[in-house]
Each structure stands twice: as structure tokens, then as C-alpha cells.
Amino acid sequence: MQCASSAQSLPAAMSSSLIYELTSIVDRLDFAKLFPRQQPVEVELGCGDSTFIVEYAARHPERNFIGVERLLGRLRKLDRKGSRLGLTNLRGIRIESAYFLEFLLPPESICALHVYFPDPWPKRKHQHKRLVNERFVELARRALVPGGAVYLRTDNSDYHTQMTTVFGNSAAFRAIETPPELRAFLTDFERDFLAKGVQTLYAAYQRVG
């Protein structure tokens, strides 16, 4: 994973809440206002109940993490879980994932993008609403630093095929393996699926060039 740390301390005072209140939805984020230390940033789009991102952030204090979720109740879980662990390298932002990726992330600003079990929109007439599509690939390329990676998980085989097709057709990415260490961190949805015998389908891609 291309997330080498170059942490620097910053004097800015941070809010006690891990939920970052956006002051604008048209200006791109300034990470210095989110985190007390400047270090590589990873983003989870649709962080759900935040189990994955909280546990992963706790394991990796040398990186900063942003969980994006449109439901306030879920972000409050991120706040509670992360605060109990005393995490300073984690923030939650309430906004739609696609909008966040396109309009709020600065160019070449993150080293990893996690998208786990997004809504599969299984009906054919609704599939245009899927988050991971041709447009998503270009937006991910813009947001990631060279060598940065996209990590994808789904339980829907048709959506998995779409994910691997759109990334496989892009010259900006090459397929890689999801690291075993990363696979060990499960989402709440994933735990439920595995308990029911539903297997996780993985895909991962690294930005080249």
C-alpha cells in the first residue's frame, strides 16, 4: 500500500467531536483543518457503522482517515467509537460519497480509497445509480497520489463484474491483490454476510504513472 508516512505536527486546535462540520460544499478540503498531524490520508466512502475505519485507524496511527457517510446516525457511531479509543487521526464527514469524491477532495491528495459493500442497485433500471462506474474510475485517478490504491468489496457478483470491468478498461490503474492485513478488517455488513454464508468478492487497483 502506497501510504508512507511523513507526519508533521500542526498547532491547529481540533474539535472534540470526530465529525467534521463542512463550512463549504464548493471549496476543497484543507486537511490541516481536519487533523492535528500532517500524514498520508485514506478515505472510506460509505463508512456505515464505522467498524472497519475505526479499527483500521486505531491500527495505523501513522495515517489519517476520513469516513464519508450521508446518515448522521452512522457518523455518530464513528464519533463514539473513535472517541472511546482516543483517535486523533480519524474524522467523519456527512455528505454523499460521489459528491465528496468529485468536488471536495483535492487533486492527488489521498493514498487509498476504500469502498466496501456499496448499494448494488440490483434492478437493471437502477444500475445507473451505482457508485462504482466509468466516471468513478476517473474521479479516483484524480484524487489518488501516484501509486495510491482503490480497495473494493461487494457481495453482488454482477456489481463485482462491473467494478472489475471499468477499472480493467482504464490505463490509469493496474490490478493488485488486497493485502491480507487489510482483508482481516471486516465491516459490520461483511460480518453479517459471512455469518449467513455469503462470501466477499474483492478487487483492488493501483494508480500508475
Overview of the structural elements:
The protein has 209 residues and is of the alpha/beta class. The chain has one domain: Vaccinia Virus protein VP39 (Rossmann fold, 3-Layer(aba) Sandwich). 31% of the residues lie in helices and 23% in strands. The chain contains seven helices and nine strands; from the N terminus they run βββαβαβαβαβαβααβ. The strands form two sheets. The protein has a seven-stranded mixed beta sheet with strand order 5-4-3-6-7-9-8, with helices on both faces. Strands 1-2 form a two-stranded antiparallel sheet. β6, α4 and β7 form a beta-alpha-beta unit. The longest helix is centred in the middle third of the chain and has 13 residues. It is globular, with a radius of gyration of 16 Å. The protein starts with 7 loop residues before the first strand and ends with a strand. The relative contact order is 0.16. About 2% of the residues have low confidence.
